[in-house]
Write a structure and sequence with these properties.
The chain is an alpha+beta fold and about 350 residues long. It has two domains: about 1-90; about 110-335, Bira Bifunctional Protein, Domain 2 (BirA Bifunctional Protein, domain 2, 2-Layer Sandwich), CATH 3.30.930. Strand 6 and strand 7 form a beta hairpin. The protein has helices spanning about 1-20, 25-35, 40-45, 55-90, 110-125, 140, 175-180, 220-235, 290-295, 310-320, 335; strands spanning about 130, 135, 165-170, 185-195, 205-215, 245-250, 255-260, 280-290, 305-310.
């Protein structure tokens, strides 16, 4: 009786699996016949009522039926999934004539635009590009630039130290030393790259970019420096702008000066960018300090030179009237879209 009932369950399950209209219905049938409370599980409980000699035969038959049903279920499941995929593909046609999704586009970053423009101007004066390591030796970042360990100028720069002898460079001036040590004179180079200082507010970033020029020749004077910077300012900000030089101090130049130009936004009339003075500071400059030449083993006064440097983001702020330097690292497309090279 139990074997006949078992065959009846098998036949009913096979027919049901074959006729299932969907994957969900098929799974429900699996639970009905093969689940913990399914028909096959329930009939196995009848084994306890069978004579001892019939139990092995019945147990063997139960396992055979279970394997048959599991195989039939897998085949039916695969068939239904393939049919459902085919039906879905037929219903969801892809129209290749539809326009593609548009994404908002920016443009070249204003800092990159400024760097390219400065390179173009300075290359016309015979300057070529140089770069240097971002992780710099303390010697090149400070000592070779006349900033020894006990020099008060070190207090002016909060520095990220990697270890006792390496720092994240605080300026691009180490490029000058590398160039003086490794290249033949006379020399005209312009260096650029990221620099790092522990400073962050509306007008300062802990990571920003600098660009600076170095000229070394047998006869170089302050007049050459002033003429070069004045030419650069007119080419970069526009004709008619004036420059002025205020005495200052930098350990690696002597004499040193701060460079101002008449405000390119208001043309010297006074505005919020120049704080209504008509002038705006753009960078520092000076004649190369003889101690810098000495560190690089350059014969002085046979060889003389000048150097000047600007903050790239600051130059972009002045040129485009940007109010907050913190906009530069955000990569907001709405900000970038305003600048066209």
């Amino acid at each position: 009786m139990s074997l006949a009932k078992l065959d009846s369950i098998k036949d009913a399950a096979l027919a049901a699996f074959k006729a299932a209209p969907s994957s969900k219905d098929l799974y429900d049938l699996k639970v009905q016949y093969l689940g913990k409370s399914g028909s096959l599980t329930e009939i196995m409980k009848e084994m306890a009522t069978l004579p001892k000699e019939e139990k092995p035969l019945f147990g063997k038959r139960v396992n055979e039926v279970k394997q048959i049903l599991e195989t039939a279920y897998s085949e039916a499941e695969n068939a239904l999934k393939n049919a459902e995929i085919s039906s879905k593909m037929a219903a969801e046609e892809l129209d290749m004539t539809l326009p593609a999704f548009t994404r908002p586009k920016g443009t070249q970053h204003p800092a990159a635009i400024v760097v390219d423009e400065i390179f173009t101007i300075m290359s016309r004066l015979g300057y070529s590009l140089r770069t240097g390591p971002v992780i710099e030796k303390d010697y090149y970042n400070f000592e070779a630039l006349n900033i020894p360990a006990d020099h008060p100028a070190r207090e002016m720069q909060d520095t990220f130290f990697i270890d006792k002898t390496h720092v994240l460079r605080t300026h691009t001036s180490p490029i000058q030393i590398h160039s003086l040590e490794n290249e033949e004179l006379p020399l005209r180079v312009i260096g650029t790259g990221p620099v790092f200082r522990c400073d962050s507010d509306i007008s300062h970033l802990p990571n920003f970019h600098q660009i600076e020029a170095l000229c070394v020749d047998e006869k170089v004077s302050m007049a050459d420096l002033k003429g070069t910077i004045s030419f650069f300012v007119r080419e970069f900000f526009g004709a008619g702008l004036k420059t002025r030089f205020r005495p200052s101090f930098f350990p690696f130049t002597e004499p040193s000066a701060e460079v101002d130009c008449s405000c390119p936004i208001c043309k010297g009339k006074g505005c919020s960018l120049c704080k209504h003075t008509g002038w705006i500071e753009i960078g520092g400059c000076g004649l190369v300090n003889p101690k810098v030449f000495q560190a690089a083993k350059i014969e002085y006064p046979k060889w003389q030179g000048f150097a000047f440097g600007f903050g790239v983001e600051r130059m972009a702020i002045i040129k485009y009237g940007i109010e907050d330097i913190r906009l530069f690292p955000e990569n907001d497309v709405r900000f970038l879209r305003q600048f066209v090279k």
